[in-house]
Amino acid sequence: MNRSKIAGIGYYVPERVVTNDDLTKVMDTTDEWIQERTGIRERRYGKKHEETTTTMAAAAARIACERAGIQPQEIDFIVFATLSPDYYFPGCGVLLQRELGITSQEAGALDIRNQCSGFVYALSIADQFVKTGMYKNVLVVGSEMHSMGLDFSTRGRNVTVIFGDGAGAVVVQPSDDPNRGILTTKLHSNGTYAEKLAFINPGAHGGYHKQHMDEQVDFGYPPTDTYGEIFITPKMISEGNYYPNMEGQFVFKMAVSKFPEVIHEALKEQGLEASDINMLIPHQANLRISQFVQKTLRLRDDQVWNNIQKYGNTTAASVPIALCEAWEAGKVKDGDLVCLAAFGSGFTWASALIRW
Ligand code: ACO
I need a labelling partner for 182 at 20 to 30 A (CA). Which of 59, 120, 233, 235 fits? Predict the structure, then answer.
């Protein structure tokens, strides 16, 4: 079987910078609280009605294609990871195909709904397609326009201050060197705690999971009638019941245990140690989580890339944005062992080891 590699990488973040102080004007929060708990100083928000998850993805994808030395027309499959799609359906994969002007090729497009680990899952799918020889140029994208779906009142502050907008993309191609490229990917999930970090309405659950909702989530408002419909109902609006919810401390505890576990799993399979990692690109969930993981793996500061301070948590986009930044800064070089790792809602978690 072939090995696949990341042949080109790009990212895009919107121009508009939103600082913690900016958020204090709309909700009861402070720069000090946000920095101390999350490490975030500022994030980017896309231009409403001009930028979308798809347009940001296209900007990142064009750079990735150029760096891979291909025209967008040569893409033969798209894998798009996002939790903030332009439409409920169809997914962003086909919208990206249209945005890139490559509809006439009629290449396949797949949307991934795996939240923070979406990009690593998407990369793994591309890896399988390329390794088996099915495709030669797979475009893998993580893009999020969170700013269009957050609760900017004080009630939503524990979630809203964390998230930002942006996109990252890579082109996966066959590697001509059998020792270089994607060495392995590890994918996991456990749905037991699905509601601990969730955006349940609108949705077709019709109240079916109510027991789990009541047990798991302090929604911050009466959860008595969280009965779902696939469309937004007047009741959801009157209760303000159409925003993401997160039990932060629970998520934190799971993340700091699953990140090291899935990294060690990949390393062990490849006969490698944590000390062999030249650059760890963790999903930018929270600086405290990344620091905890770094300490657990006994990595130096120069072995871990963090940029959550500037962009907040961009969910599926955070890994490719961070990887691209590290590569542009010359911190990911040929022959380096790069480790990508992510954990998020579902819960889902994943890692990838790449010999660059
Ligand atoms: N500003 C000021 N006060 C706030 C804010 C805010 N933005 N948000 C919450 N608070 C208050 C709460 O109301 C609470 O007040 P109280 O004690 O009077 O009730 C107090 O701060 C403590 O709230 P906690 O939720 O217990 O705060 P915690 O220390 O757990 O920090 C945080 C919250 C930052 C979300 C933390 O739990 C965390 O980082 N968890 C990990 C979750 C994460 O990273 N999610 C990212 C998405 S998932 C992923 O990417 C893996």
Answer: 59
Could you tell me if the CB of 118 is within 6 A of ligand 1?
no
278 a catalytic residue: no
Best residue among 152, 158, 262 to mutate for probing ligand 1, ranked by most atoms within 8 Å of CB: 158
Q: What is the pLDDT of residue 212?
A: 84
CA 223 to chain centre: 28
Q: Give this prediction's pTM.
A: 0.96
Write the CA distances from 305 to 277, 325, 340, integer angstroms: 12, 9, 10
Closest atom of ligand 1 to 160 CA is: 7
Distance from C-alpha of 112 to C-alpha of 82, rounded to nearest angstrom: 7
- In 109-233, which ranges are continuous DSSP H helix? 118-131, 157-160, 210-216
Low-confidence stretches of the chain (pLDDT < 50) are 222, 224
| Given 201, 245, 313, 324, the catalytic residue | 313
217 phi and psi, to 5 degrees? -125, 130
Pocket lining: 158 vs ligand 1, CB cutoff 6 Å: yes
Query: What structural domains does the chain harbor?
Result: 4-174 (3.40.47.10), 181-192+248-305+317-355 (3.40.47.10), 200-242 (no CATH)
The reply to whether 116 belongs to the active site is: yes
